[in-house]
Design brief:
The complex is a heterodimer of chains A (302) and B (334). Chain A has a single domain, classed as MetI-like (MetI-like fold), CATH 1.10.3720.10. Helices cover 70% and strands 0% of the residues of chain A. Chain A contains 13 helices and no strands. Chain B starts with a helix and ends in a 7-residue tail after the last helix. Chain B is built from 14 helices and no strands. Classes of the chains: A mainly alpha (302), B mainly alpha (334). The interface between A and B is large, with 46 and 53 residues.
């Protein structure tokens, strides 16, 4: 009898599907480029303290606003290839260490938002009825706010700090997962394999976890990747506005904000962090586009 | 008409929920608002208690919420701690600046996105298409505030072509009629002021509009491609109709209507982006107000602005939904 209470394990063509996706992604040069740059970014962020040539907080007032090398400007030194900021701190080291906040916030926010949104959406779509109504009205209300404004409001309410920042951003961006997952589950729940599992008496949570969510995974993956770019920009914007992590921690957004006052004398202060943010977000988006083309045939356009 | 009424009725619970969220945000804030109001004044405990009673903070949360909604319905969104003025007045005073900026950005986004998106879809895989797609991916990846800083650095500081800060030059005098500088200067026939205000508007509107322009170009392109693949377009083509006639008669309308319905979403994104853009360009609008308020822990103002932006967003969604029904006869009976 135990065999019947267990869900029969069909043999899904997982391996070949995975290979197909991988092959399609690898065929796209831009997606590969995005993945490579992203890999480099993760590598730098993880090994930041070892890679940074100087202490990112060490001030050196003699080198205040010193320019980057290669432009023939006075006071440029090869030890400080990207120049120094308004307190004489090494810009390259601050960029390297600053990548950590972008990566940590980007990954944890998207993970948290995906978890909350997908579970809420899957349960709403599967249970229907009152719970569904409740979740969807909640989503309607959330959609009435511009997401970034919500992030600002939650960020301000919760106060500074890495943890609060992640909570604020996840609160602002979870609804998209709830909507997409619910819509897909509404369709999936009527399909034969779900009916079969249900008729075998499989518990509902197990159906959601074992049969529904794996089928929604491709969409979740695509949205998560593309949203990672949005979240990294949002984090940088909040840090720029002074609502992000503590100002003592180097962040790309914070560096841009510091450099704003010196646009006329020292453009490099705000140029390099801006390039860093743009390159990382661009590579995330390129990878996301590639994944979307590979995983979601309905969205395949172009 | 029936649709309109149903749509309006459906908005009520959303508004209710929005007010509840905004109310909750204020109540998760650690710290006592009365403490903030009296910070540095050395007020006695009695004075604090009196203030607490006056603000209704001694009541239970549900009662406070009911009072909050009742006040909001009367147009009373509380008192700013920093400015010692009603929040509603502060928002209304700065509203024209924000609307002028977002409207200009939306305009830029649409006049770029529609032609580029259409051409990119019609001439698929051409040079134009390739450039449009590259530009769209790039544009989405550039943070608004970075674009703004680049524009200030290059166009305003280095080239000196356009002003990079503020809404109008200090020495230009302009009478306030509606609060919209472009409108006021035309109404009072003050051409120097009009030119000055328009020049100030260009860079922030570009910075804010870029992301929306790229996002909308993608939308227009994919919507066009979808319609171009429909059977009735193939039929029209097999009838030997001119390509231009097909586009004009069969494709454009059907492809662009869905894009128009997303203007509500675009306005939402623009309002969110306006917070950053206004801060960078020292644009005296609501976005800058909310950042000032956050920095001064002036939470009634933060609350008021969030509520106000949600209202605008809901109203825009309502307008675009109605517009959709009006433009597309197929769903008229819904």
């Amino acid at each position: 009898m135990t065999a019947l209470t267990e869900t029969p394990e069909l043999l899904p063509p997982q391996q070949s599907e995975f290979r197909r996706v991988l092959r399609t992604v690898l065929q796209s040069k831009t997606a590969v480029l995005g993945a490579l740059v992203l890999g480099l970014f993760v590598f730098i962020a993880v090994l930041a303290s070892a890679l940074a040539p100087h202490d990112p907080d060490q001030q050196n007032l003699e080198r205040r606003l010193a320019p980057p090398i290669g432009l023939g400007l006075d006071n440029a030194r090869p030890e400080y290839p990207l120049g120094n900021d308004n307190l004489g701190r090494d810009i390259l080291s601050r960029l390297i260490v600053g990548s950590r906040v972008s990566l940590i916030v980007g990954v944890s926010t998207v993970a948290l938002a995906t978890l909350v949104g997908s579970v809420a959406g899957a349960m709403a779509g599967y249970y229907r009825g009152l719970f569904d109504n409740l979740v969807m009205r909640f989503v309607d209300v959330w959609m009435a706010f511009p997401s970034f404004l919500l992030a600002i409001a939650f960020g301000a309410a919760l106060g500074p700090g890495l943890f609060n920042l992640v909570i604020a951003l996840a609160l602002a961006y979870w609804v998209v997962y709830a909507r997409v997952v619910r819509a897909e589950v509404l369709v999936l729940r009527e399909l034969e394999f779900v009916l079969a599992a249900r008729s075998l008496g499989t518990r509902r949570l197990r159906i959601i976890a074992r049969h529904l969510l794996p089928n929604v995974l491709p969409s979740i993956l695509v949205i998560s990747t593309l949203q990672m770019g949005t979240v990294i920009i949002a984090e940088a914007s909040l840090s720029f506005l002074g609502i992000g992590v503590q100002s003592s921690v180097p962040t790309w957004g914070g560096m841009l904000a510091d450099g704003r006052e010196f646009l006329r004398q020292a453009w490099w202060l705000s140029t390099f962090p801006g390039i860093a943010i743009s390159v990382v977000v661009l590579s995330v988006n390129l990878l996301g586009d590639g994944l979307r083309d590979a995983l979601d045939p309905r969205l395949r356009r172009g | 008409m029936q649709y309109l009424i149903r749509r309006l009725v459906l908005t009520v619970p959303v508004l209710f929920g929005v007010s509840l969220v905004v109310f909750s945000i204020m109540h998760v804030i650690p710290g006592d608002p009365v403490q903030l109001i009296f910070s540095g004044t050395g007020a006695s405990e009695e004075q604090r208690q009196a203030m607490r009673r006056a603000l209704g903070l001694d009541r239970s949360l549900p009662v406070q919420y009911v009072n909050y909604v009742a006040d909001a319905l009367r147009g009373d969104f509380g008192q700013s701690i920093q400015f010692k003025q009603p929040v509603a007045a502060l928002i209304l005073e700065r509203m024209p600046a924000t609307i002028e900026l977002t409207a200009a950005s939306l305009f830029i986004a649409l006049i770029v996105a529609f032609p580029v998106g259409v051409i990119s879809a019609v001439k698929r895989n051409s040079v134009v298409d390739y450039m449009a797609r590259t530009g769209a991916t790039l544009g989405i990846s550039l943070p608004t505030f970075w674009v703004g800083i680049l524009l200030i650095m290059l166009v305003a500081v280095n080239l000196g072509w356009l002003p990079g800060f503020g809404r109008i030059s200090y020495e230009v005098k302009l009478e306030r009629v509606t609060g919209f500088h472009l409108v006021d200067s035309l109404l009072t026939w003050n051409i120097p002021a009009f030119k000055d205000a328009a020049a100030h508007l260009i860079l922030p509107a570009l910075a804010l509009g870029l992301a929306t322009a790229t996002f909308t170009t993608r939308l227009v392109r994919s919507s066009m491609l979808e319609v171009l693949g429909k059977e009735y377009v193939i039929t029209a083509r097999s009838k030997g109709l001119l390509e231009w006639t097909i586009l004009n008669q069969h494709v454009l309308r059907n492809a662009l209507i869905p894009v128009i319905t997303l203007i509500g979403v675009m306005v939402g994104a623009l309002l969110g982006g306006a917070v950053v853009t206004e801060t960078i360009f020292a644009w005296p609008g609501i976005g800058r107000l909310v950042i000032q308020a956050i920095n001064n822990r002036d939470f009634p103002v933060v609350q008021g602005v969030v509520l106000f932006f949600a209202f605008i967003r809901i109203a825009m969604n309502l307008v675009t939904d109605v517009l959709y029904v009006w433009l597309d006869p197929r769903i008229g009976h819904v």
